[in-house]
Amino acid sequence: MFNEQYDVIVVGGGHAGAEAAAAAANLGSKTLLATMNLQTIGQMSCNPAMGGIAKGQIVREMDAMGGYSGIVTDRSAIQFKMLNKSKGPAMWSPRAQNDRMRFAEEWRLMLERTPNVDFYQEMVQGLIVEGNRVVGVRTSLGLEIKAKAVILTNGTFLNGLIHIGDKQFGGGRAGEKAATGITEQLVSFGFESGRMKTGTPPRVDGRSLDYSKMIPQPGDDNPERFSFLDTPVLKEQRECYMTHTSATVHDLLKEGFDRSPMFNGRIKSIGPRYCPSIEDKINRFADKDSHQLFVEPEGWDTVEVYVNGFSTSLPEDVQFKALRSVKGFEKVKFFRPGYAIEYDYFPPTQLKHTLETKLVENLYFAGQINGTTGYEEAASQGMMAGINAHLKINEKDPFILKRDEAYIGVLIDDLITKGTEEPYRMFTSRAEYRTLLRQDNADLRLTPRSFEIGLASEERMRRMEEKERKSQAFVDFFRNTSYQPEEINPILEEVNSSTVGQADKMFKVFARPQVTMDHMMQLEKVSGFVTEHELDREVMEQAEIQVKYSGYIEKEKLNADKLQRLENINIPENFDYSKLKSLSFEAREKLEKIRPVTISQASRISGVSPSDISVLLVFLGR
Amino acid sequence: MVQNDTIVALATPSGAGAIAVIRVSGSDSLAIASGLFRSVSGKKLAVQKTHTIHLGHIVDGNRTIDQVLVSVFKNPNSYTGEDVVEISCHGSPYIQQEILQLFLRNGCRMAQAGEFTLRAFLNGKMDLSQAEAVADLIASENEASHQVAIQQMRGGFSNEIAMLREELLNFASLMELELDFAEEDVEFADRSQFKALISKIEEVLKRLIDSFAVGNVIKNGIPIAIVGAPNVGKSTLLNALLKEERAIVSEIAGTTRDTIEDEISIGGIGFRFIDTAGIRETTDVVEGIGIQRTFEKVDKAQVVIYLFDSSDTDENAKVEVEKIRNKYPQKPLIVIMNKSDLLSEEQKKHWKQQVPEGHFMSASTGEGVEELKEQLLNFVNTGALRNNETIVTNSRHYDALLKALEATQKVRMGMEDDLPGDLLAIDIRQVLYHFGEITGEISTDDLLGNIFANFCIGK
Q1: Where do the annotations place GTP binding (chain B) (predicted)?
Q2: Considering only CB atoms, which chain A residues are within 8 Å of B425?
Q3: Architecture (CATH level 2) of domain B222-384
Q4: Which ipTM was obtained for this model?
Q5: Staple B436 to which of A218, A311, A489, B442, CB 3.0 to 4.6 Å?
């Protein structure tokens, strides 16, 4: 059945697997997507939403490089919000609610339309490894499929164990069976594995809810979109709703605590602190007698509703009883209860920056198998693994994004340098230079990089160049054009900013915090320039950001450049740390384990002190 | 961390010597030195040739700090391989510190342990066989500075910084919470409280920076109370200290007949010795007032020296030492058993048992005098002394404090301009980073850990 050899086999068809297959195939690799269920490609296992703070930036980054997540999200969105609009531009974060079924369908269709992608539905049970190199996979039916590289994106399926109250059963997702064999084989190769835990809330029947008792949460009046290409902009949107738990709800939930696998010790693995179950919230924050719940529609047409904030593994009867006490949920009908799931992961310090494993050549890991959580985190790793697998088998230089270049760079560097003790989610505060890593400039940052390796299309490159050129010209216009006091002072008075006595460059007043592009547009010269050069919203926004935040952007660039010198000093792959007696014991141990590629990466490892870095520098001989 | 900015440090051993050499290395070293140096012949330092020496003054604006010789070495022909300026100044720690501070304020960074040598190595000024030696040097110097840091932790100002850092970290977490969890149901940072914290931080930083001026200490002298009954040898002790140092002595009449203050310079640091009447229990009303006065003086002193005549059979010493220790648990106390030259071995043994922390001293033979001086200087160098306020003695810390203050001021100005939190956070992180240089490490993990520990996050 599979006589030919593939370039890349991707195991798993979730967000990581789908992006991995798309990237490898678009670069020209003959790619096979092997998954246990072809009906669940691009499945949103948890909440029906993409993006959010820091995550939205990641989707934009993937899109800038030619990934599919942004396009799929735009095409299946039912609501769009730009979060954090009141903060600085680095914080603006796009988020969409999605139609869960359309989202998966879009993914499947986009992959089907991608040349070089083959599909096969069966469980991959093991890898075929020759020497230290992976050469294919073996399926549960005993089929052997050959490939030059394999990307594992198994999500929560590896020995997945689902918990609801005191019941537990094997499974990768509700209604789907777990995958076995891979962990055991990898451990026999010398891989270290661990267990992680995550959870999901009940899904309910929207027809049984009383929305009049809840607070509507509409989308933006002027919805934007994720993709830098011409995806559709939403004309109408579905509303979400907010309601709250109460002391009564908490008391009802507490009745089930003795049967909670979280509390009776049945679940031993670590869940994410920032995505706690409702029982965890009640337990840890006992003084709060109310928590927010977001009621999110699962699509345009379906009546299924997702109860965000009510993630739980309490017994189903307890879940049901408690939820019925929530305002608006008095007559709720369950589609399915919430549950917790434990699954195998492999501490990501066993990977290189390309996401290739250190132990087995041409084997890549992406997504929850690396201890991360979130669609966006998974998808971006998949994309990077797909790109790097293709580059590796074609003997090209690896494609690595730096921490000051992309959230994706921060994500992967954190994973392989620091590892993670709990499911890793991206936050803007994880980035040292977040003012540089904005959603508005993802294309400026990354499209050229991706174009260079042949992934981003010429169309993307052309658009990005036009945006760059036009916004730069607009910024220059503000730098070189003067205002007259009598035209600017009424505006300054209006925003309570001190008035000016004489003409000066527009840049200066525009840089004041209170003055916005809308104000500047009141000046004839400015609006004239916009009309003459046909500047669109995106270009105007880009120029505004570059004027208003230039000081901070420059400062962060300067700080990032300072580190650059260390980033450029490579540590040889087989460097023998044991001979460096001057290193502290802890540093030597960590360095041996993580084997950083550059001095800069070494400096981010906990336990490696500045003096250890100096010692390393000395031995690397400048 | 190794960078290519301009660094400065003392190149000769710290403490007082006839002369001291301060080394500045980096691309801006000539430009910075040029602005702070006034040549006697009016030459501009910046345009001088390599390997030349110039006589002149280091000036801070209109104030002349010292007459110095400045040597210019241009890259690559210098110790580090970078542009280097070496300033030979007079050896007093006061002058050294003044000059170091001046350079720090004008764009230099305090060099890390072994950094000059490291730069020399990285720039190819040493051969590879020296690598191990350099590495060991860095490791051991770091160890030494770590020791000092730990000592300062105990008695010094790091605690104060640690507390401020903690408070600021909490606020920074709240700020990050606003940013990363805007959708969540959490309380956000109260700006007016934050403003108050920032002005508090500014105040403390300014005070610490001022206290750093060892000049202040020298101008006023570090107050040391000598507690001891008459005739135990207080004046002999002072004379012994004096004889060695040939320092300037000023006699200031005290407020009462029985108080004399002697100012003595030891190792370039001024110490003000305050004589007291002792604390012998008494029923005599007049002497009772004397004891009260003694305690008042001890209150103001930074170090207490308890002196008794060990050749006397008086056994009260032990009780009185305890009494002082109980009353001033935080204050460094030196117990001196004077007139040790008159003791038999057996008597010495007896006293060693009775007062184990005591030091034997004989003002007439000179026994123990050097040790006492070292101990006093040690208090200064390790920052163990507290002057109601804390004294900052480490230039590295001074550098960190200056930078922290600068960043704090930016935070304050940002708040006045109503900047959004993500931009404020840039400067807040900077403050935390510089605090971290004093107290230990800081990473973004701290912020997140703090958030998860204290706030209910997550839908």
Answers
A1: 231-236, 250-256, 275-278
A2: 429
A3: 3-Layer(aba) Sandwich (3.40)
A4: 0.79
A5: B442
